[in-house]
Amino acid sequence: MCCVAACDQEVGKLHDLASVAVGAMNPDASVTCRDGHVTHLHNFVGIVPSATGGHEAELEYWLRVAQAHPGHGRGDADASLLPHVRTSLGTSLVRWCASLVHEERDGLPSCPRVWVGVRNGTLMLRPMCEHTECLHAMRPFQHLATGAWHTLRANHGRGDSGHAGETTPRAGVPIQVLLRRSGLVLAVVTRDVAGRDEDMQTLDPDDVSGGVEEVMASVPDDTMVSVTTLSSLHEALRRPLQYVQVVPHAPAVGMKGSGDATLSRLWLCRHHAQQTELKRLQQRQQAATTAVSQLVQWYWRDGRSSHAYGHECNTQLESAFHKKQGRVVVHVEGGGTHTVALHKWPMQVIESGATVLRISGKTCVCWC
């Protein structure tokens, strides 16, 4: 119905309005009733009949939005996703996978959460990097002897089904639905020519889609695989992903009420682990410290002679000084090691008792 007060005109059926909102993905999309009143449309996440929880409903919503984007359904070469759709799709996939793959213990997880089945002659299981703006899978042609589904099923399949009637997460991970949904998302992402990370995303979209078909054909719906098995597979693949903190201040793992805890620490490849918000902050801090250290020179005085510390030692001493560290160990030119006691007067090299001086470039110092 029209949203204007006292107007009883219809603006359309929910299905038609949803098609307008999804097709345009424009927050300013609007419809007009017969009396000329304008109703603005907003994104709406409803109830997905097959969803078992909010994370699954959110993932299904963004997956359908991405698949409905012009070009993706036809496999056009110039298909591209809007940035917020791509990021929301990746974020919802990570949240949903984290709700499926978790361990009944305290501490850091030992197993990547997002896995995909990719066709490479046979169905290969590979972990996916959780960088939400890229979402690339480990290349299937690496370590071909590891991760084939038929081998995994023969070695672990029956032992991972859990006890009869067991419904807790300890029964394992529903591997078919995990591989299928991750594969559908990866198939959309690999066709996104605008936002794709060309260095990382090297998979053929047809191989990804073929993997989804093979998962549905060869992996039974009720197949459960234990987290231990997935952890062992990750180890056998030589640990291509690492679990890293990506934000400066992350809530504790398992902390109650920390809704963002899932996304504050991600399983990332070595490339994307160096591009996190935390890493960028650390690089800016290091650059600032280096810039300041160039205005300050540290010396150590042995008897009647003063010796300037080299640039690396100078930066290290200045950084430790600002962090209010009690001691810092520096390796001076010539192979010697100085353990400098800071924030005392006078500052000293503990090994030799030599005095350490910090002199600003803007300060005039006279020796008498």
Tell me the fraction of residues in β-strands, as a range.
15-25%
Tell me the total number of β-strands.
14
Largest sheet: 6 strands, antiparallel
Helix and strand composition category = alpha+beta
Strand order in the sheet with the most strands: 10-9-14-13-12-11
N-C termini distance:
90 Å
Q: How many discrete domains?
A: 2
Question: Which regions contain 5 or more consecutive residues with pLDDT less than 50?
Answer: 161-170, 254-259
Shape: extended
Number of helices: 11
Gyration radius over CA: 28 Å
Average pLDDT over all residues: 77
Helix content: 25-40%
Element order: H for helix, E for strand: HEEHHEEHEHHEHEHEHHEEHEEEE
Could you walk me through the main structural features you see in this protein, from its secondary elements to its overall organization?
The structure is a single chain. The chain has 368 residues and is an alpha+beta fold. The protein has 2 domains: 197 residues, no CATH class; 65 residues, Signal recognition particle alu RNA binding heterodimer, srp9/1 (2-Layer Sandwich). It contains 11 helices and 14 strands. The protein has a 6-stranded antiparallel sheet with strand order 10-9-14-13-12-11, with helices on one face. It has a two-stranded antiparallel sheet with strand order 1-2. Strands 3-4 form a two-stranded antiparallel ribbon. Strand 11 and strand 12 form a beta hairpin. Helix 2 packs antiparallel against helix 3. It is extended. About 4% of the residues have low confidence.
